[in-house]
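User: Assemble these into one structure.

Assistant: Restating your components, then the assembled model:
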Amino acid sequence: MDDDVRTVPGARRVDEVLRSDPLYRVLGPLLARPAVLGVVLFVLASLVVVLGPSSESRFIYTDF
Amino acid sequence: MRRIRDLLVTLGVLGVLVVASNAVLWAAYGHVPRPATDFSPAYLQHELALLAHEPPQTLVLGDSVVWGYGVPAGEGVVALLRRDGCACRNLAFEGDSPPNEYALLELMLAAGVRPRAVVFNVNQKVFNPADSAYRRLHPALGVLAEPLLTGAERADLERMPEGAPVERALDRAVARGWLLYAMRSDVRERIFGSPDAARALLGVTQSWSGAAARVAAAHRPTPARFEGTYDLTPLDGQNLGVRYLDRFAALLRAHDIPAIAFFTPTNHALLHEFIDNDQYRANAATLAGVLRKHGVRVIDLDGAFAPSEFLDNDHLTPAGHRHLARVLAQALPR
């Protein structure tokens, strides 16, 4: 199958494409570590909570 | 096997960070100049825990007038009193009413808070059954005070409608475990000065573009906007607000808490056709009688402020807050 792909002129394997991406080269190995992934997930969730839209607007009194 | 181990490590790190953030937020989140508009049950529990472990302070309860609607937090009456040396805290919130004050006092006492004195405003508009706060508890108070209320009180009072059962269950489950999520509305308002980042950004852009000034100019308060705001039905024990004001004052007296009530400064120039009449004055006398019966000191500021000190019917300008702070400073225990 891989050989078939390689027969297309200019085609590259997916992992080759990823490895050529500078962001992936930095983040890939980091995110592959479960402890780092836990930290990243916590930071992302915190950002969503702090920056997210208020869902409490229905609670605001509007009689003034 | 390795994947399961990796998953457990990821979840373990997440759990440790959540627990650590809970501890940091609980320890670092001090008093705020005033509660967020949508203050959370977790915030209120935290605030009451702080108050319970501090020397007794004067607690200022009340509605959006006392909270400081329309003025920056630092220019509200309680912030000005504190600047003047008063050991007082702003526990006022938008949408307050006698049932809310009663529920808040029950909660404070249950949490072990013993105030040096309680100061609160009495606003005739919330005795109108059509007012949104007449029988409705603030969501955070509704959640926390419900177990402290009697069955009859729970039947009297409304809680804010909540979301769908699944949404509610998920929300409570996450809020129980993660304090940042439970206090998100408080944290957002503290960081952005607005219910969320998007509204803060919108406010900045509207201010820069001049849209905010145009909206304000188009919404200048006119008498017509307040038609029906003040109900002139004679007030008596049939009125829920009167009943809960009576219970609130009785509870203050039962716990020997000195209390000062002041009639909310009201813009008579704007509301002349609705409130400059005998029934409005008779209702004020009824409310004063209810409070004095329980030993509450009553200060009548209803007609004491100039029209230029109001933003609308009762919310005060920064100058109005300075005026109110001067009056209250004279009355507060030294």
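Residues 103 and 145 of chain B are 6 Å apart (CA to CA).
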